[in-house]
Design brief:
The complex is a heterodimer.
Chain A (H helix, E strand, L loop, with lengths): L2 H7 L4 E8 L4 H11 L4 E5 L3 H6 L6 E5 L5 E7 L18 H24 L9 H6 L6 H18 L3 H14 L4 H10 L11 H8 L26
Parallel strand pairs in A: 1-2
Antiparallel strand pairs in A: 3-4
Helix pairs in contact in A: 6-7, 7-8
Chain B lengths: L1 E5 L2 E5 L3 E3 L2 E5 H8 L2 E3 L2 E4 L2 E3 L10 E2 L2 E3 H7 L4 E3 L5 E4 L3 H9 L7 E3 L5 E3 L7 E7 L3
Parallel strand pairs in B: 1-11
Antiparallel strand pairs in B: 1-2, 3-4, 4-9, 5-6, 6-7, 8-9, 10-11, 12-13
Classes of the chains: A mainly alpha, B alpha+beta.
Chain lengths: ~230, ~140
């Protein structure tokens, strides 16, 4: 998805780092990465360390970092939109206007990244330090404890201690229910869901329980659609 | 043999003494596993030293051993252990994570690519970096 943007910008001054939050490791990510034929950097993060450091709860989320290593946009949804929640779960169909809204979200976000990639701090989408701090979501003690539970659970599983590993992974999700990363990675490790995708009835029940809350909170970005485009349940 | 996991990764430690929720390590092992070393002024990492609480010194240090679990709790960082007490997780604290983000300096990390080669975020200083996450699941 990012290769076209990377080729478009084609600048020595710009790099994309795509981190796979993938506790199963490199081999699970390999076919996806090789299919994308990336010219940018693709890394494997079994421990979800980047999500921990930047306080991320979902994929895709992104952070913009300037030439001096300063955050100019903290972690936020990278162009995705809640429209997928309206998908017909039998035949995967969606209303045209929702599809259009999701496309608008993607295009708006990509255009903003491109604008910043080319123009740097002069881009209207790059926050100054004050605005960047205002947009930060800071972790509390529960989040730190959740991250420790996740990391220990993932480690125990890697060591073959599956049942105990799953206990810690479940605890991570309890402590931090807003982390779809924790919830879905744990599902994925338990081999749940069709086609290797961590989506089953429980998952969709959890999504429906969001009601007016967001699976992908819209970024604070001019032109980015904030409307759902459908009536969420509840 | 015990395993102590910190942000830097897992570390095997011989001769750890596990007493319930307490994890006593030889000072040299504690330093190897956590980066914190026992000095006359307290437990130190780089320029930072945290004094051993005087009123309860015996809960933290005895002979050449350090109770890293107690020390980690003193730092208000999460401490977890598996049921057997063989694997310990000494996690990062919310305060340090929040402070790092508020500084706006992008927290550095080092991760492998598909071939196993490590890349650090800070290797890309001088470029604008779009750091994004994805997953197969």
């Amino acid at each position: 998805m990012w290769q076209a943007l990377f080729e478009d910008v084609n600048s020595e001054d710009f790099m994309i780092i795509a981190v796979a939050e993938e506790s199963r490791g490199a081999e699970t990510a390999r076919e996806w990465i090789e299919a994308a034929k990336p010219g940018y950097v693709c890394l494997i993060d079994r421990e979800h360390h980047v999500a921990d450091l930047y306080n991320m709860v979902n994929v895709p989320q992104a952070v913009w970092i300037d030439e001096q290593g300063q955050i100019v946009r903290p972690a936020e949804t990278a162009g995705s939109h809640d429209g997928w929640r309206s998908m017909n779960r039998e035949d995967m169909s969606m209303e045209d206007d929702v599809v259009a809204l999701m496309g608008k979200a993607q295009t708006t976000y990509m255009d903003a990244v491109r604008d910043w990639a080319v123009n740097g701090d002069a881009s209207k989408h790059a926050f100054d330090a004050g605005a960047a701090r205002e947009h930060l979501q800071l972790p509390g003690a529960d989040v730190a404890l959740a991250n420790a539970n996740f990391r220990l659970g993932a480690y125990l599983r890697q060591q073959g201690n599956v049942s105990e590993g799953d206990e810690f992974l479940a605890r991570a999700s309890e402590l931090r229910p807003e982390s779809w990363n924790f919830y879905r990675q744990a599902m994925n490790l338990r081999d749940l869901g069709p086609m290797g995708l961590a989506a089953d009835e429980d998952f969709f029940a959890r999504v429906d329980a969001l009601g007016k809350d967001r699976y992908y909170p819209p970024p604070d970005m001019e032109g980015f659609p904030e409307e759902f485009g459908f009536e969420p349940p509840g | 043999m015990s395993t102590v996991i910190t942000e830097a990764g897992p570390c095997e430690v011989a001769g750890a003494s596990v007493e319930g929720e307490q994890l006593w390590l030889q000072a040299a092992d504690a330093e190897r596993a956590t980066g914190w070393s026992l000095k006359p002024e307290g437990l130190c990492q780089g320029d930072v030293c945290v004094p051993v609480p005087r009123a309860a010194a015996a809960d933290y240090v005895r002979g050449g051993e350090v109770n890293m679990a107690a020390f980690w709790r003193l730092l208000e960082r999460p401490v977890l252990r598996d049921h057997a007490g063989a694997t310990w997780m000494l996690g990062a604290g919310a305060t340090e994570r929040a402070a790092a983000l508020q500084s706006l300096t992008a927290p550095d990390f080092s991760l492998p690519d598909l071939s196993g080669q490590l890349h650090k975020l800070s290797d890309f200083r001088g470029k604008r970096v779009f750091l994004t996450t994805w997953s197969s699941w």
